[in-house]
Every structure is written in C-alpha cells, then in structure tokens.
Amino acid sequence: MARIKSLFLLLMLIFLVACQDFGSKAQKHQEFTAPKNPRNSSIEAHREFLELEKKSIQNYIADRNLDLQRNGTGIYYRIENNPVFDSIINVQSGDEVTYHYKISLLNGSELYSSSADAPAILRVDKEDAEIGLHDALKLMRLGDKGLFILPSHRAFGVSGDQNKIPPFTALVYDLEIVDIQKLQNP
Question: Between the CA of residue 3 and those of 8, 13, 16, 101, 135, what are the distances in Å?
Fold first, then answer.
C-alpha cells in the first residue's frame, strides 16, 4: 500500500510540475502581440519599395545623363522622330504594330531583344503584354525610336516573367516602330 501511495504522490508531483511549465509557455505566447493592422505595415512596405525603385530609376537617368520625360503612370521616356518617315501615323489602340525591341535591367544587362530580320508584332491593347509596353507604343509614330523605363508595376510586376525578369523589377526598353497596320476594332 505504501508503494501505491508513493507512486501516486510521484505521479501527482510530475503532473503539477508539468502544469506549471505549461502555464509559463502559455504565458509566453500571450506576451507576443501581432501588429494591430497588418495591412498598414504591408502598405508602408510597398510605399518604401516604390520610393526605392523611383530613386533607382532616377540614379540610372542621372548616371547616363539622360533627358527623359515622365508620364502620369510613372513611365520615363524619350522619343526620337525619324525625319525619313515624315509620318503622322500615330499608334492607337487596336493597331497591329511591328517593332524592334531590346529589354534591359537598370544595371545594363540585356535580357531580350528582337533580331534584325524578326521584329515583334503586337496588337495594341488587344493582346497580352506588359501594360507599360502598350503605353509606350501608343506614345510613338511610324519610324520613331524610343527609350522607355518602365517601373515594375508597368512591366512584369510581382511575378516577373518566370524566366529572365525577376519580380518587382524596373526595365529599360529600346523600341523602334517598323510598321503600323490600322485594323478595325471588332
């Protein structure tokens, strides 16, 4: 009988020690406090990113002594008109545009380019492509060459292109309009 009492007391002692340890762990969890509004911290982080990206683009422009304009969507650009074409044919939504391109990172690394004998073709605002490319083409005319810097939200955004372009990356586009076909919108 004494053995049973001893065993019972031992088990009770273990139980009390375990409960006391559990209580202190539970208390530690209560000491952690989550942010009151995680959305605000996310918004602030995004604002900080946009500021850093803007400074990075401005440094790129300053380092190369570029004279660029900025439109309301954040795209920086310079367009050179080709006097040979003396064209007033502007690119508009629905047009099929044939163009040469080179896409680079702000560090100068070239990612993609068209070849001399194989320009790209895009139906403006009707085919899937980065929104900033559509915007850039609509600023141009037949024969124009342009330099465009697209902030990440106008380029490939949060996902990149799943190949060479990383997420959240501003891009430099060199574009030249080769042909514009005016198509009827359906």
Answer: 8, 15, 20, 89, 87
The full set of domains in the chain, from first to last, is 68-181 (3.10.50.40)
State the Rg of the chain over Cα: 30
| φ/ψ (deg, to 5) at 81 | -80, 140
Tell me the pLDDT tens digit for each residue of 134-159.
999 999 999 999 999 999 999 999 88
pTM to 2 decimals? 0.75
